[in-house]
Amino acid sequence: MRIGFIGAGRVGCTLGRYLEDHGANVAGYFSRTREHAEEAARFTDTLCYDTDIDLANDADVIFITVRDDAISDVFQKLNSSCPLEGKILCHTSGALTSAVFDGCGVYGYSIHPIYAVNDRFTAIENFQNAYITIEGHEKYRDDLLRLFQDAGLSAAVITAENKPKYHAAAVMASNMVCGIYGMATRLLTECGFQPEDAHRALSGLFLDNARGITEKGPVGQLTGPIERGDIRTVEKHMEVLSPEDRKTYLALAGEVLRLAVKKNGEDKAYEELSRYISGNEGEG
Fold first, then answer.
1. Which helix (H) or strand (E) holds 278?
2. Band of the pLDDT at 283, cuts 50, 70, 90?
3. For the CA atoms of 182, 184, 189, 193, what is the dihedral angle to 10 degrees?
4. Quick check: 95 and 68 in contact, CB under 8 A?
5. Distance (Å, rounded) from C-alpha 158 to C-alpha 189?
6. In the predicted model, is pLDDT for residue 284 greater than 50?
7. What is the pTM (predicted TM-score) of this model?
8. How many CB atoms lie within 10 A of CB 237?
9. CA distance 171 to 59
């Protein structure tokens, strides 16, 4: 299958380079910003197309790697300009399903990498750690699954109805972690740390904890006052946090408590913590 990309952003560049490096037949790129397409083509050693129609005529599989809110418009414009019937159309949105391609005689797929693609040209460095999920028409689903598996990536099929919850899970393990870390560094600056010192103080803890979670799972890695059933320390935390920070703390505390029960079983201290957390959920 000859693969073309409409959109030369972070995901398009990274995915195209990885597939090209692992033996796939990547045709090249089209972007409404010519410079971006040229950069992506150089990065992947593929072609830069003058129009999306030229790319579509040259490719069997077309990846539309643009913003979620632009996928439908890009597809509809292309579909009105050239014959696409029988071609494989893919997007890389975690939240949208393949339904965006329905009713146009194409085979549509949502192909999403569980991976933080944060740069066009450097995210490729650890892309072998990405986990690919595929949702879409059954005709070529297994072929696309093998495409990624043959490239050395873990890949699995999911259903359209599970896409929103699946994407929420990915966001929790990625973007939301950035938010939690940002909150932690902010709290340290409120204690008098300079921002760079706050980051330095927390980075080792964060990295060791992340490594432990990946090796042992969240239950095996769990430590801290909630795991110990130390409600007095939790109360002290709550006393010094702002109303908004207490909301975040309590929401996370409830999840940590569930892990603690899995690790250590039911405990009277956990019952007290559970009552305290549920009783303060309206804080702020």
1. helix 268-279
2. low
3. -110
4. yes
5. 42
6. no
7. 0.87
8. 15
9. 32
